[in-house]
Amino acid sequence: MPRQPRIQIAGSLYHVMARGIHGQDLFYDKKDFDHFASRLAELFITTDHTCYAWALLNNHFHLLIKSGETPLSLLMRKMLTGHAVYFNRRHKRSGHLFQNRFKSILCQEDAYFLQLVRYIHLNPIRAGLVKSIRSLNSYKYSGHAYILGELTNDWQDTQTPLLWFGKQKNRSVQKYIDYMKAGLTEGKREDLTGGGLLRTAGGWKGLKDLRKRGQSILGDERMLGDSNFVEETLKQFDEPIESSHSVRNDYSLDQLTKDVCHHFDVSPTDVKGASKQRNLIKAKGMICYVATRNLKTKGTELATFLNISKSTVSKLVSGFQSNEQYAEFINIYM
């Protein structure tokens, strides 16, 4: 399935992510983290892009960026290439460091700005790099501590997030801290990280409710926003509205694979390979189960699509039927 072109609009909000290939760590130690942070500083100081939130994790990173006139892809190419060259040279390795292209999601700012700031800045806690908000307050490799003023840098916009909580600094800082603490119970925000429809509908529960009511909405995997936001953006770029997906129609095997691979944090390319990695096997099982039950895909087609035998398709389907852990995902399409 050909890649859709990136949507690049100067002055727009983007959630940007990149991961190490096959789960490869991007940072082995403090020196690696420091090098990447210094590249962020250099690039944001010398370009017209603005960074509101960021977090470096072991094998991936998140950025919340207001784009400038310079193409975002140019900024990211310099960032990723520079780190890959440094990392490979320092650790005496070769080959690709990052998995596929970086991911950039065009975001509806008024609805999602604060949610994304919180989601990105709480990632170090979810990843186990720090244990609590108190520890996060001094964590060097996330934008949270800089918004609080506990640490300082000269390349992150720390004032705009606080202005959402008011103009009086001390009060806005406290409100920001309270807002961050309230997000600790949210868990993984699938509506912020899933497929296009998932974002538009507000997560799996919202998508399931819409399906039950027989409603259709527009969604695009390149955007985080409501139906009107998606429609207006597509019109601006003269893209056919039909290229977006609806809740009831045109759910393809390709789209199912993308959603499942995101759910298990694996690559659509890897899921068609021979690896026996646990999450890849689970992803194959879910693809086979949902495709045969809901999309009415034939076993021979799935076997060809996933590069496995027809008997393996049958085993994956029968083995997955007893798995209730992902029932919420499956029930969307049953």
Question: Would you write up a description of this structure?
Answer:
This protein has helices spanning 30-46, 72-91, 109-121, 123-126, 133-136, 144-148, 159-163, 169-182, 190-193, 196-201, 204-213, 227-236, 253-264, 278-293, 299-306, 310-320, 327-331, and strands at 13-19, 50-56, 60-66, 103-107, 223-224. The chain is α+β, with helices and mostly antiparallel strands. The radius of gyration is 21 Å and the shape is globular.
Summarize the structure.
This protein has 334 residues and is of the alpha+beta class. Helix content is 49%, strand content 8%. A hairpin with a 3-residue loop joins strand 2 and strand 3.
Task: Please report the distance between the alpha carbons of the first and last residues.
Answer: 25 Å
Strand content: 5-15%
In one word, what is the shape? globular
Output mean pLDDT: 82
- CATH architecture heading of the largest domain: 2-Layer Sandwich
Give the beta-strand count.
5
Whole-number count of domains = 2
What structural category characterises the helix and strand content? alpha+beta
The CATH class of the largest domain turns out to be Alpha Beta
Order of helices and strands: EHEEHEHHHHHHHHHEHHHHHH
Low-confidence stretches: 213-217, 240-249
- Roughly what percent helix? 40-55%
Major beta sheet summary: 5 strands, mixed
Rg over CA atoms = 21 Å
Number of helices: 17
Oligomerization category of the chains in this entry: single chain
The CATH superfamily of the largest domain bears the name Transposase IS200-like
CATH topology of the largest domain: Alpha-Beta Plaits
Across the major sheet, the strand order is: 2-3-1-4-5
